[in-house]
Design brief:
seven-stranded antiparallel sheet, 7 strands, 25% helix, globular
Length: 170
């Protein structure tokens, strides 16, 4: 299965699919997906799924103030809150100062094959932060039990945020 997503404004889609969340995001989403495999069991997914996905979100605004409890695989929103809460504590700033500015750009590039999910690039930006990571996940027969053992995160902060946190002086 292969498909391309031409640049698409997500706000009208969100208004139709989740009207209660309509104001939470706007921006342009584009990408390409190409996957192939056989079978639907976790073991077959681990053994036979190959492919790649590239997704870009730009010119946007996505808020991550609301945190929800999700079961199963890692939830992007929950992971984002964990990273931002940790950064806020490190900088000794209220978490809302880190979370309130909307995400304006997201990039994700992944490959799947040989029983691995490779996160080649995952990056998010807002006016104060740039968060970037790369990682590998060894897939298990029970795909939901696959573990993300290492997630090195590189974080850049704006001069203005660094000055408020008193970690930067001119």
């Amino acid at each position: 299965m292969s498909t391309e997503l031409t640049p698409t404004n997500i706000q009208p889609l969100l208004e139709k699919l989740q009207p209660e969340e309509a104001g939470a995001a706007k921006g342009i989403l584009e990408g390409a997906f190409s996957f192939s495999g056989k079978g639907v069991t976790g073991g077959n997914i681990r053994k036979f799924l190959i492919g790649q996905a590239e997704v870009n979100f730009r010119d946007g605004r996505v808020f991550f103030l609301k945190e929800e409890d999700h079961r199963g695989m890692v939830n992007l929103g929950t992971l984002t809150h964990l990273i931002l809460d940790t950064l806020a504590a490190t900088l000794r700033l209220p978490p809302e100062e880190i979370k309130a500015p909307p995400i304006t750009q997201l990039t994700m590039r992944i490959d799947v094959g040989d029983g691995l999910l490779r996160i080649r690039e995952f990056e998010g930006r807002n006016q104060n932060l740039r968060v970037r990571t790369e990682s590998r996940i060894q897939l298990k027969d029970n795909v939901r039990a696959s573990e993300l053992n290492q997630l090195p995160i590189k974080i850049g902060v704006s001069d203005e945020l660094a000055q408020r946190a008193r970690v930067y002086k001119e």
